[in-house]
Design goal:
Elements (H helix, E strand, L loop, with lengths): L3 E2 L5 E5 L2 H7 L3 E4 L1 E2 L1 E5 L3 E5 L2 E5 L11 E3 L13 E6 L2 E6 L6 E3 L2 E3 L6 E4 L5 E4 L7 E6 L1
Parallel strand pairs: 5-8
Antiparallel strand pairs: 1-4, 2-3, 2-15, 5-9, 6-7, 9-10, 10-13, 11-12, 11-14, 14-15
Amino acid sequence: MFGSPAPHGRALLVALTPESGAALGAHEREITRLPYRVGRESRGTQRTPRGFVTERRDPGSRPNNDLYLVERDEPLNVSREHFEIDRDDTGYILVDRASTCGTIVEGQTVGGQGRGGSIPLHDGDVIIVGTSRSPNVFKFRVS
């Protein structure tokens, strides 16, 4: 991970679905550095209008995300650079990184259609990555 240390207590992402648990590699993961970036795993073979291609990244390149979400079926909910968790003067915030489908926080859609946006995060907020049909669902916790 990269960025600055997460201040003031422990911030966690808690898995609410099997898919989010698989992405975290556990039931929960502590956010230890900010901004904490989340996006779709896109390395490997991808289907494009021109057929299947293998994405290649430069050796030694810095990752775009701290947490990668895998999507196997279309329609895709998660953008390659979907959202990040950061902190401002008032507390933790979720920033949609100009994703296609947006991010739902406690029922409110942030971003989508490439427009981005941000919303304050509170202990216990549910985060759905993409549309309401997305299997990538997390709870934000602060302790």
